[in-house]
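Exercise 3.2. Students should predict the tertiary structure of the chain below and write it as structure tokens, then compare their answer with the key that follows.

Predict this chain's 3D structure.
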Amino acid sequence: MKTIHMTTLGCDKNTIDSEMMLGLIAEKNYEIIDEPQEAAIIIVNTCCFIQSAKEQSIEYILDYVGYKNSGSCQLLIVAGCMAERYHTELAEEIPEIDGFLGVGHFDNIVDLITSLERPVADPASPPTSPVMPQYFGDIDKAISQTRRYLKPGTVSTFIRISEGCDHGCTYCVIPKIRGKYRSRPSQEIFSELQYLRDQGIEEIILIGQDIAPYGQDLDEGLDLPALLEVIASNFDFTWIRMMYLYPEGITDKLLAVVKRYPAICQYFDIPLQHLNDEVLKRMGRKMSFAQISQLVKKIRQTLPDTVLRTSIITGFPGETVAAHTDLINKIKVLPFDHLGVFKYSQEENTPAAEFMDQLTEDQKEQRYDEIMITQQALSYHQKQRFIGKTLKVLLEGVEDGAYYGRFYGDAPEIDGTVFVESSDPLTIGEFYSVKIVQALEYDLIGDIENEFTK
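Answer key:
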């Protein structure tokens, strides 16, 4: 069996794409391994959302070129967003790359590997480089329905319900990479959900670039609230989490469904990107701060235990000192439990890249630090409300004798942690009732609930 290693960079959508590829690979005569230095075939599923993501992808590719030159790696394949957007440039600059797999073509991974492994017809003739598949303009095809590869012990995973984006924000290149918005047919979603539940998955995370418009492009009569209701009524997942909801798509109907079903996490990831009206307008965003403020108030009134996450872009072209100060003040008015900050990245082929008054990296860094310091205090304050409460915690690991996990208010990888103290051995991947005794800036500390903690 030939060994294959997959490195996944970027967002949760890339994670699913990698699992789809590995699901197909696992059905063939290949062994999937975690160590790239020992693999005969290395696949890098890349990201190029912002400049730092591009740089990280290039660093990994160059590292693996070293493995190829040393003889351990026989084939190096670049997949994902960079393969879609920059395959021509990468082929010229890094000739050691053997093949490219663009977005929307992950179901072709085995065909690509097979074509690259095919021996030369005449052994006496000089070897030629394999023709690298190039994919142009086909990123809008239907979302593939492929059985995914899950590592043993996985209890939490993502399920994609939509792909692409139609919003047209002036700073974003995603529509050019992943195509126009298209919802996944509900029966495909339900089929995959059943498969995931059969594999022991306890938490599913519904994702897309923006899942709020789900169903609007289908003729099924199911919007996002209706889809959630079907899932919550028919599948016994412990947690059903939503991620990436643009604010204009959060309706009263959606809030009512979340309130009705305990399995649906009262957790909203709402990428706002800014709170100053002038900057929001230049970004091409659809809601004003007054509308955002009203929405946040409604969510908190309807679902008092809700945990809110957002993301902010700092250093957008033309963002004045006054606009930055306004942003800081409004973050304090709408205290979010979790807030991520990105420094604006000048992405080619986006309207904002041509805007005047681009800020310097030093200015972006200073504003980034100011936002993070502000959010640190707000996050600490928000965490205090959980002291004394008993929360259901999914245990994810143990380090230096301390158990750790997540409650409904923490999404995997990006949010905080619940540290759990217990005198008895606990089982990783199980849910426990934990009484919170202390809150830090981003994390909680609690004890397993028993007759002593009640």
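Discussion points: The chain has three domains: 2-119, 156-385, 387-448. The first helix runs from residue 12 to 26.
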